[in-house]
Amino acid sequence: MDSRQLRYFAAIYEAQSVSRAAEGLNIAASALSHHLSNLETELATALFARKPRGMQATAAGERLYSHARGILRAINAATDDLQEKGREVTGDVSVGMSYSAVKAIGVDLMKSVMTDYPKLRLSLSESLSGSTLVHLMASEIDLAVVYNPPNDPKLRVQPILEEEMVCVGRADIIGDSEVPVTFQELLNLPLILLRQGLSARALLDDASLLKQLESRARFQMNSVQAIAGCLVDGLGCIVGTRLFMRELLEEGKLHARPITKPTLTRTLYICELADRPATFALEAVRQLIMKLIFAALSEGRWDAFPVRQAD
User: Fold this and answer.
1) In terms of domains, do 181 and 251 share one?
2) Which of 30, 77, 142, 250 is the most buried (most CB within 10 A)?
């Protein structure tokens, strides 16, 4: 199997037709069919079921396409990286960020790329931390900025900042006091938890405390908009950060109280695949993200503390 076979296979998969894929690749359909037949023979399995209206991937075809996407992206990135002229930053970089990170630096990141790296093509996606890691592991993104990733040898991680969590809700739900609420008092409030995809631990550093919150939660949601609506309507409160619901706090629709005994925290990390060498473009974007995060901290736009290892 070589990169050309993978590229031809991916084109057929995406077009769901040999003839349409051949047109896109500007080669003869018979030649493309021959390459596909050779690949299926080499792998000793059918990759497509031939249907009257096109090609439908088999289970083996679906698995191969999942591998092919990552391999072809890596090949394209390597080509762009090594063909740079005069060390000018070019190429494609895909970044996945948690909701809070996009809220704090997303627009600034896009502006900085336009100004500093005009030939760099940046793709920015926002999702919950667990979902973002799934995309990274599948090689669908190059860099993930997420909370509390799992201890996985496939990941290269760097802690950046630590946030203290607060209790956020309407004043008539959590009290209009500025006095901290204890963790035990928190458990008696009507809790709403933000589900974090496959990584529920993204909410808190301490998994045992998270389990206690989960056992008492009235609702669990993976929609930021739904949670905001529930909070404003007085259906409950959340354990989150001031940044998470900043606008509603500033408008006075919600109130926040610190949490003590113990203090609850979460840590933001920059994550990459450990076995993938960084391109010049990826290094540039990584450094730019760190610069913007630290600027947001120093200017008070992000209520958090830098992690010493990231200095």
Assistant:
1) yes
2) 142
Give the structural domain span for 25. Answer: 3-82
**What's the CATH code of the domain at 173?**
3.40.190.10
Q: Which CATH number do you get for residue 66?
A: 1.10.10.10
In the chain the first and final C-alpha atoms are separated, in Å, by: 44
pLDDT, one tens digit for every residue, the chain (311 residues):
788 888 888 999 999 988 888 888 888 888 888 888 888 888 889 999 888 778 889 999 898 988 888 788 777 766 766 665 446 788 899 999 988 899 999 999 999 999 999 989 999 998 765 678 888 888 889 999 998 888 889 999 999 999 999 999 999 999 999 999 999 999 999 999 877 554 455 677 787 888 898 889 888 888 888 999 999 999 999 999 999 899 999 999 999 999 999 999 989 999 999 888 778 889 999 999 999 999 999 999 999 999 875 44
CA 63 to chain centre: 22
Instruction: Please give, one letter per residue, the 3-state secondary structure of 291-311.
Output: HHHHHHHHCCCCCCEECHHHC
Counted domains in the chain: 3
Whole-prediction pTM: 0.70
Residues 241 and 305 in one domain: no
